[in-house]
Structure formats: C-alpha cells, structure tokens
Design a protein that fits this description.
By secondary structure, the protein is an alpha+beta fold. It is 20% helix and 34% strand. A hairpin with a 3-residue loop joins strand 13 and strand 14. It is globular, with a radius of gyration of 26 Å. The protein binds zinc ion. Zinc ion (ZN) binds next to loops.
Length: 511
C-alpha cells in the first residue's frame, strides 16, 4: 500500500512539474496580467483607509431605500491578509440619522463606537467579503482554479472569471458562483455572486469598483467600492489611502472595550424571540398556541402570529420568517379552525424577518394585506425566482397569482360577529407604512417592533422612555383604542401577559 501511494504521489508531483513548465492556463494568465496591471503582483496584504457606510439587509425605514443605517469614518476600514484568509475592520461607527431610521428599536442614536473586528474567511459571507475587492477576487480566483468566459454588459466586453462556492449560512447550503468582470485594461470592475434570501429569492450581491486612481508605486486601485444586495446599497467605501504588504494583525482584539457591533455585509437584524430571556434556568417550553377568546389564538414560535376565525375563512396577523414557520402556523390554524381557507394575512411592515413567510402564504392562495406605502414591492419580490433554495411557491406550477390588498389609515375586516382593524401609525421611525392591528372584541392591540417589551414588567414609569413607545402611546390615544392587553410580535419570556398599563410606564407616564 505504501509503495502504491508513493508512486501515485510521485506521479502527481511530476504532473504538477510538467504543468509548471508549460504555459499558464488562460484563466491563470488573466489573473497574472490583471495583478500586474494593477501593480499588485506580489501583494500579500491590503490595507484600505477611508469612510463610508453600511447597514442591515431588509431593516431599512423606507421600503425602496438603501439598507442604510451606519456611517463609518476616519479609520483603517479594512485590512486584508490574503494568505491567512482574514481581514480586520477598525472603524468609527455612528448612526446615520437622528432619530435612527429602520430596525433600530429605539429613537435614541447608539453611542459612537470604536469598532475593531477580526473576520476569518471560514464562512460564505466572509469569503465573499474577501473577494469583494479587485485584489481579493483575483487571489480567491487563483486559489479556486477559476474558469473563464466572456460577457458583454452595457456595450462593454469583459473577461469573466468564475469559481464555485457553497452559499448559505451553513445550515442551508446551496451551490453558487463568484464571478469577476475584468475589462480590456485588465482591471477587475465588478464582483458578483447570486445569493438566496427567504423573501427576496435569488438576488445579486455585488461590488462595483469605480474612480480608479494611481496610488503611487504603480498601484492602481478604485477609490470607490459600492456593494449592493438586490438593488439597495449595503456597503460603501470611499478609499482615501491604501497600503500594500503592511503587516495585518489577525489576533483577536482584547474583549475589553472591543465593541461588537454588526459585521458589514449580509445579515438581517433579528428581533428577540420568546426564548430570549437571559440568565436563570431555561424556561419551560410554551404551548403552540394560546386561546385569546372569541375565535382568536396566538400562535407561539420563535416569532408569533394571530389566527382569527371569521365566518367563512381564517385571517392571520403577520407571516414572518420562512416556509417552515408558515408550515407550523398553517397546521395550527387548520387544527383550530378546520375546513376554512386562509384568506388574509395582515403584514404590519415590510422588514424581511416579517415578510419571509409571505411567499408560502401566496402558495396557499392567501391575500396579503399591507400598507399602500409598500405598493409595488411585493409584486416585484414575489415574481423573483427562488431557484437556489427552491421554496414551496417556486416548486408550484403554475404559480398561484399574487393577491395584495393595499390599505391606508384604517381598514376593518368584519363578518358581524368578529372584527379585526388595521391602523397606519404616524411618526414611526422603524418603518414607513407601519400598521398596528386591533381586535375590538378581545381589546387586544398587536404591534410588531414598536413595543418590544422587557421580560420583566416595569412597576413604575421609566426614567428614560424609548421614543417608539412614546409615539405608540400617542397614536393609541389619538385613535382612542380601548386596550386590555398588548401582544408584541416578539413575545417576552414565558409569554407573560402585557397589560395596558405597561405602555404608559414604558412611555414614561403614569396612566
Ligand atoms: Zn421591523
């Protein structure tokens, strides 16, 4: 056996020696020429200085705006070590708007943070981030034996180098490809990879490199890097200086004072689910649903929804997360209310953690009820392919027709005995077109992300009220809603009951 391996090894060595003596493969030649044209043939590390911004996918305030929240400046923004396959991000991180817009959970800007993060390229997102500079892409393309094609885009011809990569978060893996577009001057102008998102489907995550500059020592590099996922920007960097082959320290920074913060790049902010209680013994598992009385039930999972029985159909409040969540929700709805179709799902706002299950409800023939501010968004998104990770709707042929009902200030669903009301709330900085849902019979107010209650109830008005709750309370008073219980989409630990008083306390008021 030993001998056989030895011979095989010798042959492999001989094979690679022959390859080394022969000409480079066409793709390798493109890589060599491109590195040379950029003056970075011997680059091992790249350090970028500059300023820009980043954000969370699907958590913006405006449904058609950028995934924007944070600004980064006056710092070493990224230093890459291509051999060690990692990068270090050091930056001053601050809120882009006051009050913060989008999925911030507060109307008070977060304090300015000095962030220092090490990212090793041991997962999909980090590997793509490594490839999203011209040099990083060429290094990754060389290491992954890239193949070569050509493509014309907007009248310009590009050589396209491609290599396969496993996409996803490690739990749900799919095959995709990293593509780099190299122009006739041997400059990498764009890096693109198709990714899968529960709500958006198959979308492009790309980085475009513009405003090329000669940085001295023959190094040519773009001074603008813009990353997008789907259409909106997720990351932008205006490069003010760069260094090649400066040492990059990838040792983890001391935990003391090392602000964590969100890594730039993909990743939607997730709200705390019912199991989010910290400390103490693990809470007992909650039942699948709670009877809210008069034909309404709270469906309890990592996220929550309300199941409402109407005379000849079922109405749902909120279709969050993904297919698996909706599968559980539908099973419980059909168990509680057999033989009635699920006709409506009320969507409070477009944030992707609360829209990720809507496709599975479209597959069920359910009509999405949402605020008119979202007009066009669902039509565009639901029409997108979902081929990387085919979901229930993708697998259906033909696809059921999308049904969306847009509502404004107020909408009432009633059959004479059961009533559900939606209200658009004014002044939300969390999301434009935000709606709350009121069940007048049960005197229950449903909110998503506007009043995420603490695990322990307050016993007196808080000193520093969160602006979300101040605004929600003023809206409740403007609308004259009589409330006995609040149900937040993100439940407190143990699904403790949240009474009317709690909103007053959290808004800094006694009743
Ligand atoms: Zn939200």
């Amino acid at each position: 056996m030993f001998k056989k391996f030895w011979i095989a090894g010798a042959l492999a060595t001989l094979g690679s020696m022959v390859w080394m003596l022969s000409a480079q493969s066409p793709a390798q030649k493109v890589i060599t020429d491109s590195l040379k044209a950029m003056g970075v043939s011997d680059v091992k590390t790249l350090t970028l200085y500059g300023e820009g911004g980043d954000g969370f996918v699907g958590q913006q305030r405006n449904p058609t705006g950028d995934y924007w929240r944070w600004y980064n400046d006056s710092y070493v923004v990224r230093s890459y070590d291509f051999d060690a396959k990692g990068f270090r991000t050091k930056r001053t991180h601050w809120e882009g708007a006051n009050p913060p817009g989008g999925g911030a959970g507060t109307t008070t800007p977060a304090p300015i943070q000095q962030q220092d993060q090490i990212t090793m390229a041991n997962n999909f997102n980090a590997q793509v981030e490594m490839a999203m500079t011209p040099v990083g892409f060429l290094k990754m393309a060389a290491a992954n034996n890239a193949s070569m094609t050509s493509k014309t885009e907007k009248g310009k011809k590009y050589t396209v180098l491609s290599y396969p990569i496993d996409g996803g978060d490690g739990k749900q893996v799919y095959k995709t490809t990293v593509n780099g577009y190299i122009d006739s001057a041997n400059m990498v102008q764009k890096v693109e990879v198709m990714i899968s998102d529960n709500f958006l489907g198959d979308v492009s995550w790309n980085a475009v490199f513009t405003d090329w500059k000669d940085w001295g020592n023959g190094v040519k590099f773009p001074s603008k890097i813009v990353q997008r996922q789907w259409d909106p920007r997720i990351f932008e960097l205006s490069v003010t200086n760069l260094k090649v082959n400066a040492p990059v320290d990838l040792a983890p920074p001391a935990t003391k004072g090392g602000a964590k913060g969100a890594p730039a790049g993909a990743g939607a902010a997730k709200g705390a689910g019912p199991g989010a209680a910290k400390g103490g013994a693990a809470p007992a598992p909650l039942p699948v649903s709670e009877d809210l009385g008069n034909g309404a039930w709270l469906y309890i999972n990592a996220y929550t929804s309300v199941i409402v029985e109407m005379k000849d159909h079922i109405l749902l409040i909120e279709g969050s997360q993904n297919d698996a969540y909706i599968e559980g929700l539908l099973a419980e709805a059909k168990r509680l209310v057999p033989n009635k179709p699920v006709r409506y799902v009320i969507n409070t706002h477009f944030h992707f953690d609360h829209t990720g299950g809507l496709r599975a409800l479209v597959a069920e023939g359910t009509t999405i009820v949402t605020h008119e501010r979202n007009k066009g968004l669902f039509e565009r998104v639901i029409a997108q392919p979902h081929k990387l990770v085919p979901d229930k709707l993708e697998k259906m042929s033909p696809h059921p027709k999308l049904k969306v009902e847009y509502v404004g200030e107020k909408h009432t669903f009633t059959d004479g005995s059961q009533t559900v009301e939606t209200y658009a709330i004014r002044g939300s900085t969390h999301s434009e077109g935000m709606m709350i849902v009121y069940l007048p019979k049960q005197k229950i107010l449903w909110n998503t992300d506007e009043f995420n209650v603490n695990n322990v109830a307050p016993t007196a008005p808080v000193d520093a009220p969160n602006g979300y709750q101040v605004n929600l309370l003023s809206e409740v008073e403007r609308l004259g809603l009589q409330i006995e219980r609040h149900i937040p989409a993100h439940l407190p630990a143990g699904n403790r009951k949240v009474g009317a008083q709690e909103l007053y306390f959290m808004a800094g008021r006694d009743k």
